[in-house]
Design a protein that fits this description.
By secondary structure, this protein is an alpha/beta fold. The protein is built from 14 helices and eleven strands. Strands 4-3-5-6 form a four-stranded parallel sheet. A three-stranded mixed sheet has the order 1-2-9, with helices on one face. The longest helix has 21 residues. The relative contact order is 0.10. The protein binds glycine. Glycine (GLY) binds next to helix 6.
């Protein structure tokens, strides 16, 4: 069975297909791959996995359709790799009828989408996300881009894919740490929008982490539906979409500080959301019981709740001041006000934030949880 979720964006509308062995379906195959000028962009790890499964349909596809390999990891999501891909395309005389296929996780999706948005002023692309994190979040909504040494995702564009193909079979090829990392974005959706989903996760998180099909499918569909609702209302992040950045100002600071790739994105998001929840509690907004439930769900999924030991409050502040949400040097943060509801706090005082981070790092707000 194939589930479909439509993302309605007028001329840029597309469908998210969710199921198993999706490329075995002729209609989906012809939707993803045009008659000619397709190029798959993937990474070395995924290519190796596909080449081991000689009977798999993806193996047959990759032996017939040209592909380009980017080395695996966040540290390759940069302009240098973009330029290499563009040189490859130009040398082979790809024109504006090029169709790029992003086969990989968030890094591959972001970089491929970005290239699609700038190559000869824009070509089509399709997302085939292979990690939980990209299946529930990154592949949907057309955010594309690369990192700059001074800040994560600082170079980019909005460019919607022609469609998203979510095949659950990919997840069984992932190391457990990547499934756990993806859970951080799943939990994020529940905290922002859906108290009932949060309660459901509290009961079913282990089944999802163990990739039990019924629970996994429910979880992925739920996140895709929530994300498409957000994108339809606010494609370019002027209002509602900002909520999806819950915890991301702290998280991006951690990733930039540690060097891209040393922290999995989901791990940094977990710490970021816990810090946002702590801050909300510190401001007397979030209740103690809800704070504890938020900390517990990340902790019990195997996600970290503290950032790098050596990262000082000054390091957080310096990097957070470079965040895309900062306007006129004023820090804006999304904070949970209860489970299932968040709010934009448009002007967080820098000294206040500095003191909060100092206290948070001393771990005095954890009420003996650990
Ligand atoms: N990953 C958050 C967004 O797409 O807006």
């Amino acid at each position: 069975m194939i589930d479909q979720i439509r993302v309605n964006l007028y001329r840029n509308s597309y469908t998210i297909y969710i199921g198993k062995k999706l490329l075995d379906q002729k209609s989906l195959f012809t939707l993803v791959f045009k008659k000619k000028n397709n190029l798959i962009i993937t990474n070395s790890t995924i290519k190796d996995i596909i080449f081991k499964k000689k009977n798999d349909s993806l193996f047959k596809i990759i032996t017939k359709i040209p592909y380009y390999i980017i080395p695996d990891g966040e540290s390759y999501k940069n302009l240098c790799e973009v330029e290499k891909v563009i040189s490859f395309l130009l040398k082979r005389s790809y024109g504006r009828d090029l169709n790029l296929i992003a086969l990989g996780g968030g890094v591959i999706g972001d970089i491929t989408g970005f290239i699609a948005s700038i190559y000869q002023r824009g070509v089509s692309f399709f997302q085939i996300p292979t990690t939980l994190l990209s299946q529930v979040d990154a592949s949907i909504g057309g955010k594309t881009g690369v990192n700059h040494i001074l800040g994560k995702n600082m170079i980019g564009s909005f460019w919607q894919p022609n469609g998203v193909l979510i095949d659950l079979d990919f997840l069984s090829t992932l190391p457990k740490s990547h499934i756990i990392s993806g859970m951080a974005e799943v939990i994020k959706y529940a905290i922002i929008f859906d108290y009932k989903f949060f309660c459901w996760l509290e009961k079913n998180i282990l089944q999802v982490l163990n990739l039990q099909e019924k629970e996994l499918l429910y979880c992925i569909k739920k996140c895709c539906k929530l994300k498409s609702m957000v994108i339809e209302k606010d494609e370019k992040e002027t209002s509602l979409r900002m909520f999806l950045n819950l915890g991301h100002s702290f998280a991006h600071a951690i990733e930039t500080y540690s060097g891209y790739g040393s922290w999995l994105h989901g791990s940094a998001v977990s710490v970021g959301i816990v810090m946002a929840a702590q801050l909300s509690f510190y401001l007397n907004i979030l209740s103690k019981s809800e704070l504890l439930r938020i900390i517990k769900i990340f902790d019990s999924s195997g996600l970290p709740i503290f950032g790098p030991k050596n990262m000082l409050p000054d390091d957080y502040l310096e990097l957070m001041l470079r965040d895309k949400k900062v306007l006129n040097k004023v820090i804006r943060l999304i904070l949970p006000i209860s489970i299932g509801q968040v709010k934009v706090f448009p002007s967080i005082d820098k000294d206040f934030l500095f003191n909060f981070i100092k206290i948070y790092q001393k771990k005095i707000y954890f009420f003996g949880l650990r």
